[in-house]
Design a protein that fits this description.
305 residues, alpha/beta, Rossmann fold, Ubiquitin-like (UB roll), binds guanosine-5'-triphosphate, binds magnesium ion
Length: 305
Amino acid sequence: MPANLPPDYYKKEKELQMEKDPMRKIEIINEMLAIMPKHKGTDKLQALLRAKIAKLKKELKRTKKIGTRRYEYAIPKEGAGQVVLVGSPNAGKSSILKALTNADPKIGSYPFTTVKPEIGMIEFEDVRIQLIDLPPVSEETPGWIFGIIRNADLIILVIDLSTEDPMESLQELLDLLDHRNLKPDGERPGLVIASKCDLVSEKLFEFSDLPVIRFPKGSEAFLKEKIFNLLGIIRVYTKKPRQKFTKSEPMIMKRGATVIDAAKHLKREFVQNLRYARIWRGVKKGRRVERTFPLEDKDIIELHF
Ligand SMILES: Nc1nc2c(ncn2[C@@H]2O[C@H](COP(=O)(O)OP(=O)(O)OP(=O)(O)O)[C@@H](O)[C@H]2O)c(=O)[nH]1
Ligand SMILES: [Mg+2]
């Protein structure tokens, strides 16, 4: 990190991390650019921030397009994945958003407390995952809410265990999604959270198709890890040949990605020149691998062109 950035810059950087509104994000990045001293040492950082602005603008445009064309609405994706909380009124969705993120949604003991999507960021180790809390869904739910579900990478179905027939509620929810071609599948996986398990003593209900977990107080870390795993992503770190590895932000890739995919991610124009990679996995010594070698979460790679 360059040492010559003024303290105000870091303040803005923090503000940016917490901000959810893409329009405001663009404003903050512009303010960061204005504060930053302009010289060779900050060239890279300036380019990075400009690229961030371009990406945010593109996403905003895409969101608007989807909104007008299909009467659907998407929330710009942020972080390593986008996860939505779907469930009946009063099921405990907003409580989950509050427990897992920095968001502070309204929680009420009456149904239909949430009237618009609320967004928070889950921090899991060194990745951030976007979590969206939705108003409750039913047959009357407007189409744009289903548009948000369609855009998500993982659907969490929240079922209140203290209700009379949680299995039936789950089936109703699945039917509702199925009618809109939104049933969780390999492309868009699903997880069932059985909420309010402190109110009932029975064992967890069985549901064979989807993973089901309870969410008692104190199990936030477990749930975060589960969400990360279900997103089907891996983190890959890079190091430069003959230099010591210093941990920086990981590349987020789909599970099953290979060395060549990582090279494409990093230096698309030089991919054809990639000869081989060296890889560090766990405590093992670095070893040479071919271009088609499949990567795993937390691999460190060194590309040789
Ligand atoms: N005992 C208990 N109560 C819970 C739990 N989770 C949520 N609640 C209560 O259930 C009620 C509804 O919680 P919310 O998180 O607002 O539920 P929601 O699904 O967001 O509700 P809507 O926005 O109306 O759809 C509140 O009174 C919460 O305090 C839990 O794990 N245990
Ligand atoms: Mg709510």
